[in-house]
Structure formats: structure tokens, C-alpha cells
Amino acid sequence: MSDMTSGDAAVVRAQELDPSEVKQCCAAAYDSDAARMLLGGSFHPGGLTLTERLGRILDLRPGMRVLDVAAGKGTSAIFLAKQFGCDIVGIDYSRKNIEAGNEEARTEGLNGKVAFQWADAEDLPFPDASFDAVICECALCTFPDKQAAAREFNRVLHSRGRAGLSDLTRDGALAPELEGLTSWIACIADAQPLSGYVALLSNAAFTVSVTERHDGALAEFVNQVRTRLVAAEVMVRLRKLVLPGFDFEAARTIARHALAAIREGNLGYAIIAASKQRTFETSKARSY
Ligand SMILES: C[S@@+](CC[C@H](N)C(=O)[O-])C[C@H]1O[C@@H](n2cnc3c(N)ncnc32)[C@H](O)[C@@H]1O
Fold first, then answer.
1. Ligand 1 mean position, distance from CA 237 (Å)
2. What range does the domain containing 218 cover?
3. pTM of the model
4. Dist CA 134 CA 151 (whole Å)
């Protein structure tokens, strides 16, 4: 399996790998020390400000059962439970992130209100119609089969349940440096145009009600990563930090090209919210 943090990964294209390898690379990248160092707790542009915005758009309320798909270390799920009083299940492909999320929920005294478990977003281990809302922040763009994931969002929602995404948007051609596996994992290479996310949800029997652009949040996020990269590299040189195998040059190159693409209007960030219109016809209906 390719390691996202190694230099070799920069030239590997995700399309050349088995989908499960792409998911494993992504999970390994986002449970690494480098991710924590460069991204902080919230692994998406706009941080908890945009998470709160998504919660308001979805009209989250006490007692609602919410699924956070690809929850990372659980920062958003814990925040939403505290802010809106809802009960949250977070899933992620990284077992280390699941452990970290459950540990944090215990520390915050949210046992029974927030729980994390391992799962693949494209094949959710929950009965049909078991949630009132599904959120998925900065992660759909990394799933090899985005349509399967959108169908799963539909399946696990109650009738009239709501889905809220926030994700990178990509319009047009990007520099070749942004097309490799590392850029895929960095949410860039397979990001879709806003209309693409709308189509994914519409094709999964959702009616899209809200789209909002937050491109400035992405520019701020990438600039912050660039600043943290400089600090991390200095600390590594001074032997005050160890990030084994982390390729600073590849990370700098991606950040530089990403900023250029944001300036040119080819990369952005958006929120998309939708309501379940009907149950998607699927042979995979399950009751667990
Ligand atoms: C950019 S991070 C976003 C994490 C979190 N939503 C946040 O905003 O802080 C992407 C996350 O997607 C997870 N992931 C990738 N592929 C997945 C899959 N197929 N199923 C579940 N989680 C997945 C990774 O492990 C990682 O935690």
C-alpha cells in the first residue's frame, strides 16, 4: 500500500489503486501526527464555524439522531452534540481516529450521547431509516465511489431526513501536481464541481435545498497549513519534532498549486444541504 506521507505517493494516481487502498491511505494520513500538527482538530476548511453553520442549516435539535460520516477525530460530532443537544454517531475508516473520538467523548462527559465506530461510508452498518440527519464534512471528495456513499446517506435517513455536506469544489483543469494520490487524499484531485455534488445527491433521491460558497475559508485553511508547514519543518530540523517519512517538499508543492487554483477560481469550498425526497430504490435495504 502506498503511504501518503512518502515521496513516492506524490506520483501515484489514486485511479491506479484498489479503492480499499485509497481509503486506507486516506485514513492513515488523517490519523497521523502530521495531520494533527498541520490541520489541528478540525480537518476541514472553516473549522467549527462552518460546522455550526451546517448544523443550523440542518436545523439540528435536542433528541435528533445524527450520523457524522468520516468523522475524523470526532471534533465536529462532539461540538454539534454540545451546541445543538443532538445524539451523534460518528463513523470513520481510521480505527485510531475512532479510538481518539471515543476517548474525547468520555473526557467531555458525553458517553451515551456521542459514539464513534469504524465503518466504510460506502457501506454503512446501520439499519434503514435510523437517523434524522447525516453530515459529511470534507470527505465525500475522497471516497472512490461517491454515488454509493450518497445512496447510503439516503438509505439510513428517515423519510424527510436531511443530509448536509461541506466539501472542496473543483472546476476545470488543475496543475498536474494536484492530480496524484496525495492530492486526492488532500481532498483536491477528485473534488467535484458544486453541480457535481448536487447531481450526486439528486441521483440518490435527495432534493437539494441549500448551496453556499465558502471559498475564502479554503484560502485561509491552505494559508494556515503553509504557515504550519514552515514551523513543522523548523522543528524537525531542530530535532524537536519527528514526522517519519513526511514529505515536506510534496506538501509545499501541493499547497502552492492549491493556492494558485483557488485564486484562479478552480478550487473552492461549499456547503450543500438536501432533504430525502423518497427512499432510493436499492437491493441493499437492510435491517441489521
Ligand atoms: C479530511 S478528513 C475529514 C474529517 C472530519 N469530517 C473533519 O472535518 O474533521 C477525511 C476523513 O475521511 C475518512 N475516510 C476516508 N475514506 C473513508 C471511508 N470510505 N469511510 C469512512 N471514512 C473515510 C478519513 O479517515 C478521514 O478521517
1. 30
2. 7-276
3. 0.93
4. 12
